[in-house]
Specification:
Radius of gyration: 12 Å
Number of strands: 6
Strand content: 35-45%
Largest sheet: 6 strands, mixed
Distance between the termini: 11 Å
Shape: globular
Structural class: alpha+beta
Length: 98
């Protein structure tokens, strides 16, 4: 599966999250996942909340438009973004459209 794919209602983004990183940043695409480094620890949903907040800020949308579809307890996450196309997401994240 590709890192960014279209759905009927928006876009699915496949992420590989590294919690407790020194800085928050996107680290490109590797093995079909967008690499995301977060400073939040992976406890009590802190990394999940930080992931959604980071993506919402990068995309310029409200967090309510995003939903963690899979991976709440995993480093690999699947996030659904309502109302944006894969091209819009890739452009906003600074990635080449896939």
């Amino acid at each position: 599966m590709e890192a960014i794919t279209a759905t009927a209602t928006g876009t699915l983004v496949r992420l590989r999250v590294q919690p407790r990183a020194s800085t928050e940043r996107l680290d490109g695409i590797r093995d079909g996942c967008i690499r995301l480094r977060l400073t939040a620890p992976p406890v009590e949903g802190a990394a999940n909340a930080a992931c959604i907040a980071f993506l919402a800020k990068m995309l310029g949308i409200n967090r309510a438009q995003m939903r963690l579809q899979a991976g709440a307890k995993s480093r690999e996450k699947l996030v659904h973004i309502a109302g944006l196309t894969p091209a819009q997401v890739a452009t906003a994240l600074g990635l080449a459209p896939s």
